[in-house]
Amino acid sequence: MAVSSPKPEGRAANTITTEVLHSLSEIERTHDVRILYAAEAGSRAWGFESPDSDYDVRFIYVHPRDWYLSIREQRDVIEQPLTGLLDVSGWDLRKALRLFGSSNPALYEWLFSPVVYTESGNLAKELRILATSSYSHRALAWHYFRMAQKNYGRYIRGRESARLKKYLYVVRPLVMVHWMIEHRALPPIRLETALGGLNLPTPFRAALDSLLESKRRTPELGEGPRLPELDRWIEESLRLSEQFCANAPDERPSTDDLDGIYRALVFHGCASVCPAG
């Protein structure tokens, strides 16, 4: 099982990577599958994990050909019990490709994660190329807008104080939409990478940078007074994002392209789309 870089950095990084790869190998052995791709998701991929944040490992796998030839409906998800800081789960190839066809936001974040544990063959590379040209900006923008709107309304708006880490779960999705508005392209997964490519107000950046630094140092930020510089930016960004969502491009991946990838992997055992003949 090959390991792609970058891998987790910082304290005990080698130990965690070893544990992740061992868990993935056990899944392959126990479930008789081949893992085609595995990456970090969640706060560690976004770049604002706490010292005790879980490692959210997500993967795509393929069964032997005969599994796909049965008339029975079979489970297309593998979920491991939470072990220590490891939260490991994955989707069968067919499920993943169907969700890719609808521009699923979670799958997009897996494929473009900055932390990749293993990548076998060219599946992830081909899907990233397809996503860049045909993933629906509208589907992604609505997802991020609604996530920000829900978290802001549930945890921050109308309160005198708030759980400070919740600001990050409002700001990041809005930053993703801002990226799509400014660059007309899919956004990077890591928050600081996206921030570096946007023209944002200085007071907002200063308040956000301070919050990010506190989040990385502290297991639990706790509750504190509202952050007015973040509030002002969030309120304006929610208005701008909603306007963008309604008219964002809505291209969708070609079913023919996804069928080709599926058949190559399941019926021909190829790590990439096989040449004709």
Overview of this protein structure:
The protein has helices at 13-31, 43-46, 93-101, 105-111, 123-134, 137-155, 168-183, 191-196, 202-217, 228-247, 255-267; strands at 34-41, 55-62, 77-79, 86-92, 116-119, 161-163, 223-225. It is of the alpha+beta class. It has 2 domains: 13-135 and 253-267, Beta Polymerase, domain 2 (2-Layer Sandwich), CATH 3.30.460.10; 137-247. The strands form 2 sheets. Strands 3-4-2-1-5 form a 5-stranded mixed β-sheet, sandwiched between helices. Strand 3 and strand 4 form a beta hairpin.
Tell me, briefly, the overall form: globular
Cα Rg: 20 Å
**Tally of extended strands?**
7
Strand order of the largest sheet: 3-4-2-1-5
Terminal Cα span: 29 Å
- The total of helices stands at 11
Strand content: 5-15%
CATH class of the largest domain: Alpha Beta
Low-confidence stretches: 1-6, 271-277
| CATH architecture assignment name of the largest domain | 2-Layer Sandwich
* Global structural class: alpha+beta
Q: Provide the succession of SSEs.
A: HEHEEEHHEHHEHHHEHH
